[in-house]
Write a structure and sequence with these properties.
With 166 residues, the chain is of the alpha/beta class. Helix 1 links the parallel strand 1 and strand 2. The radius of gyration is 15 Å and the shape is globular. 39% of the residues are buried.
Length: 166
């Protein structure tokens, strides 16, 4: 498995229906060919469909949602899986053990509260999704401006960890 030119990032969250989908779509939106993003979860939604409020949030922000789906992290553990340079866990608390991925990518935790949690009205949840996307934008926008030397296999985890406070 050869390392591709763009830096490849895998966003992980339990159901791969909200936060990790937002991260995947936004990084692909602003990555400018330097980055390629994927997302997955330990127990993806059985329907394969991301949370409708996540899709709405992205669409309202002008971000393409074509091809987004809720998928298992096992898709990224096979021999023919895409190369991954960095795994970013986005659940509120990093309390779940992650599997080992081919190539031993760097790992970092950027925690966000689950915007779909609870039984609030959709309008309240939609605002939570928008707030989550705004927080993710700040980190991802800073990430995509990092110089190439900050994205090398030996430095990418430290570079991404420094953005945890952004």
């Amino acid at each position: 498995m050869d390392r591709p030119d763009p830096t490849s990032v895998l966003f992980l969250c339990t159901h791969n229906s909200a936060r990790s989908i937002l991260g995947e779509a936004y990084l692909n939106h602003v990555g400018g060919g330097r980055f390629v993003a994927h997302s997955a979860g330990s127990t993806p939604r059985s329907s394969g469909q991301p949370n409708p409020l996540a899709l709405r949030t992205l669409q309202e922000a002008g971000i393409d949602t074509q091809g987004l789906r809720s998928k298992s992290w096992s898709e990224f553990r096979s021999d023919d899986a895409p190369w991954i340079d960095l795994v970013v866990t986005v659940c509120g608390a990093a309390d779940q053990a992650c599997p080992v991925f081919p190539g031993a990518p760097a790992m970092v935790h950027w925690g966000y509260d689950d915007p779909s949690a609870g039984d609030a009205p959709d309008a309240v949840k939609l605002q939570a999704f928008q707030d989550t996307l705004d927080r993710m934008r700040r980190r991802i926008d800073a990430f995509v401006t990092l110089p190439d030397e900050a994205l090398t296999p030996h430095r990418i985890a430290d570079s991404a960890r420094r953005l945890s406070d952004v």
